[in-house]
Design brief:
single chain, 152 residues, mainly alpha, 7 helices
């Protein structure tokens, strides 16, 4: 069971890749988005919700398995945050790249309340929620940018 939990929590072991595991996890999120973006919205949001719940459970278990709080090899949170950031994006490479960059920016900079959630909530829920908030920021800015491009 520990192997399955670690497989999920580390984004199919992408969290073990050297240098910037969160970026690798976000890249896995973009690849997953390429598969999911053609689904009906209800299906997309249902899968995203299921991944969030599984992420809370597997990230919390991974903390216990490796005996470290919010270990960097856990990237299911980046995958879910990235999927959230791209949830309303058109299936276009420029949108995917912009959503990827925006999510990484908000995940790294941790503007309020991302940083607050990161430092005040712990366990699987805390691991997941700061990236969900970063994903919401990226979603909002990406949608604003897409709206501005359409207005031009």
């Amino acid at each position: 069971m520990d192997r399955l939990l670690m497989f999920i929590a580390t984004g199919a072991y992408s969290g073990y890749l050297p240098k910037a595991p969160g970026t690798w996890g976000s890249a896995v999120g973009v690849l997953l988005w390429l598969v999911l973006c053609r689904l009906q919205p209800t299906s997309y949001w249902s899968i995203l919700g299921i991944l969030f719940v599984i992420g809370v459970f597997s990230a919390g278990a991974a903390e216990k398995i490796v005996d470290r709080g919010d270990p960097s090899l856990v990237v299911i949170d980046e995958i879910v945050g990235q999927l959230l950031a791209l949830s309303l994006a058109p299936a276009h490479p420029a949108a995917a790249l912009a959503g990827f960059a925006l999510f990484r920016l908000f995940d790294i900079l941790k503007p309020f309340p991302v940083g607050w959630v990161d430092t005040h909530l712990h366990g699987g829920l805390g691991i997941m929620l700061d990236d969900v908030v970063a994903g919401l920021y990226a979603l909002a800015v990406l949608q604003l940018g897409l709206w501005l491009v359409r207005m031009m």
